[in-house]
């Protein structure tokens, strides 16, 4: 079982970036894929999630209207499209897979498998 996050980098404020999370070694049909982020000295924070089979999504207020999540069945990959980025979006971004219920989609402990993280740095 592996989740491989990629696509991070340095971007200017107001710009955009797309992160990818490629899954291998397990069937995603019953899973929810979530994106989390963690800045130095802070707790891991929920960003967005998508239920693989139904496409239901959940979004943190801090990124609503700027970030979106999508999936590619053929590539077994989930994408995080980041638009109008801000310096406050600077963090290591992680993707994760699990079975959260509606009240726990934002809770990192509801996710079993984690990718290695990819650094996103937004310059002002």
Description:
With 124 residues, the protein is mainly beta. Helix content is 0%, strand content 52%. The chain contains no helices and eleven strands. The strands form two sheets. Strands 2, 4, 5, 6, 9, 10 and 11 form a seven-stranded mixed β-sheet that branches. The chain has a four-stranded antiparallel β-sheet with strand order 1-3-8-7, with no helix packed on it. The protein starts with a strand and ends with a strand.
For the sheet with most strands, the description reads: 7 strands, mixed
* Model regions low in confidence, pLDDT < 50 over at least 5 residues: none
Helix segment tally = 0
**Apparent shape:** globular
From the structure provided, what is the oligomeric state, counting identical versus distinct chains?
single chain
Tell me the structural class. Answer: mainly beta
Q: Indicate the mean pLDDT.
A: 96
Radius of gyration: 13 Å
Order of helices and strands: EEEEEEEEEEE
Tally of DSSP β-strands: 11
Note the beta-strand portion. over 45%
Q: Span between N and C termini?
A: 37 Å
Give the helix proportion (percent range): under 10%
List key phrases describing it.
seven-stranded mixed sheet; single chain; globular; 124 residues; mainly beta; four-stranded antiparallel sheet
């Amino acid at each position: 079982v592996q989740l491989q996050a990629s696509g991070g980098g340095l971007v200017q404020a107001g710009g955009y970036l797309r992160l990818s999370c490629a899954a291998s070694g397990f069937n995603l049909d019953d899973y929810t894929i979530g994106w989390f982020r963690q800045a130095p000295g802070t707790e891991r924070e929920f960003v967005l999630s998508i239920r693989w089979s139904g496409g239901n999504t959940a979004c943190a207020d801090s990124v609503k209207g700027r970030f979106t999540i999508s999936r590619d069945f053929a590539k077994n990959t989930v994408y995080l499209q980041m638009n109008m980025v801000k310096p406050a979006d600077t963090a290591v971004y992680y993707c994760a897979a699990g079975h959260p219920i509606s009240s726990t989609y934002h809770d990192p402990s509801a996710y079993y498998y984690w990718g290695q993280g990819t650094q996103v740095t937004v310059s002002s």
